[in-house]
Amino acid sequence: MKNFIFQTVPVLHFGQGCLAELPGQIAALRAFRPMIVTDRGIVDAGLIAPVQKTLSEAGLDVEIFDAVIADPPESIVRDAIAAAKAAAVDIVIGLGGGSSLDTAKVVAALAVDGAQPLTDIYGVGALARKGLPTILIPTTAGTGSEVTAISILTTGETTKAGIVSPYLFADVALLDPALTVGLPAAVTAATGIDAMVHAIEAFTGRHAKNPVSDMLAIEALKLLTAHIETACSDGRNMQAREAMLRGSMLAGQAFANSPVGAIHALAYPLGGIYHIPHGLSNALVMPFVMQFNLEAAAPLYAQLADALDIPRGSENSSEARAQQLIDYLEGLAVKVKAPRKLREIGIKQEATPELAQAAMLQTRLLVNNPRELTLADAQRIYDAAW
Ligand SMILES: [Zn+2]
Q1: pTM for the whole thing?
Q2: How many Å lie between the centroid of ligand 1 and the Cα of residue 194?
Q3: Measuring CA to CA, which of 3, 63, 175, 350 is 20 to 30 A from 220?
Q4: Residues measured by CB to lie within 5 Å of ligand 1, the ion
Q5: CB within 8 A of 33, min separation 6: which ones?
Q6: Ligand 1 geometric centre to CA of 268 (Å)
Q7: pLDDT digits (tens, 9 = 90+) for 145-185
Q8: What spacing in Å lies between the alpha carbon of 191 and ligand 1's midpoint?
């Protein structure tokens, strides 16, 4: 066996009502002045009110920054850092989907005296030290951001760039499935498929996959595939919501250690250039990248097909089994009514060369892909996905 390293957040609270643990966790981190980093959608959906109530009942004076937007640009991160410093907060609480949690992580890292400039911390391992303590509370079941050491920001106009550092791991992740019951079906579908992609790409990662990330990826994919239809058709089904949140967290732990590959590399330009939500971007390119990867990843895809107990066909090769996985996932995506083609969401065919060029910039991710991918490959995949 190859040597490996596995890291995750030190404290996880999971389960209905675990939001009540928040004041105790803040006290355990010896903090007194929290700032919640979130977006207007969370405020308008009434999700911040219970958090605020829990904190004020514990006698904590809480600062709110609710200006996060999807595909968070650097300007928003800088505003949040300035707000945190002005209010002299000593702990950052991220509440929301991936954009809010990713922003919270960077704000916590840089809202301290003598911090590096934001532009210096992109890439892997460039962040020099830990900043303020962080507690992350997801309200979607998809990004797994609460358990990853990665933040994705939008730099310039359209490029998505990642900051990867063990110092971005939260001190506590608090996962309360009750916070996800209000998610609309389309968001549940897209974020759920994103989480499946995290599990699949972690399992097929070329460099860092290991026995722990494999185990997490398989368990995540089982939970997500078994419950996504119910979570979409019956959003108040707490068992399905709990399974989706658990699956997304496990997949997050997997890909925090065995990073994602070409599905994400080809999804990011759709977010960066067209602001297609991250989960939907992944859902749209997933089958076509998997089809491209099949010649290199067939044995691993076949293992996943076996783990999911997908019914066998007459042919027994690993290629045939891998194809069954791709077809099964595509069937699920259709059942949960995720858009299946780029043209259905208003992308013009002429856009594919620009998308392919932009995807090739995601070198941090492409190196993990089980099959090497060229610009011409990326172009062919987008054309197939169009
Ligand atoms: Zn993702």
Answers
A1: 0.95
A2: 5
A3: 3
A4: 194
A5: 60, 61, 63, 87, 88, 89, 90, 91
A6: 9
A7: 999 999 999 988 778 889 999 999 999 999 999 999 999 99
A8: 8
